Task: structure prediction
Amino acid sequence: MTWPKEVRDEVLIKSGRHCCICHKFCGLKIELHHIELKSEGGENTTGNCIPLCFDCHADQRSYDHKHPKGLKYSKEELLGHRDKWYKIVDQNLGIGTSNHLAQDQQTFYKIYQTIPPVPTIQYLKQIDFNAWKFHLEPLRPITRLLFLLKDEPWTEFYDSDIEALKLNLVKLLSEFDNKITTDTFDFKSGDSDAQCVPRDWEGTQPERYKNTVKFLNEKADEIVDVYTAFMRLCRGKLGVIT
Result:
């Protein structure tokens, strides 16, 4: 469905060509989605439009009402995601005033000090969850950061490009942390810090074992990549020293 040019221009400017759900910068790889579907009376208006990346747009189109699996995005949820992201982009001042720059620098250093490259990111680069065991201590900063970020006003960057990467990083860290909590267990070797994906699953639950190891290894790699991009962007835009 073709959107009017004035609608396209307005929503792409308001979103900064980021996905309003996952906040990834899309560039040309962006779709405009009807919040209220055209088939249900939705119009080609700015108020009924939400810019999405290809993946998030596919989620909207692939939901099967006859065989529901997972939870469909509601109209209210899509509006909430969109309006919250538009507000962040609208407040984006780049380096802005010296006060805004100082606040973004302060926010960066709190995140950096909570999850420094060593040991956490370095450990994630090296770890293989198919190995016999891994250690929790290098990963504990992830839980600490997620705790600090929860409902804390200082965690939002004025710069929307940095905020988008931060939100993506937090999403990945949360998914990783949840999986560690639910699908790994004490190694029971006398080492209270040792943890593992249960090796007996290879025989009793081979798919669960395979999927858990794959998920954790892939998520660790994603975290390293996004963390690295976040650090580079902050050094370039905020002039921080790491």
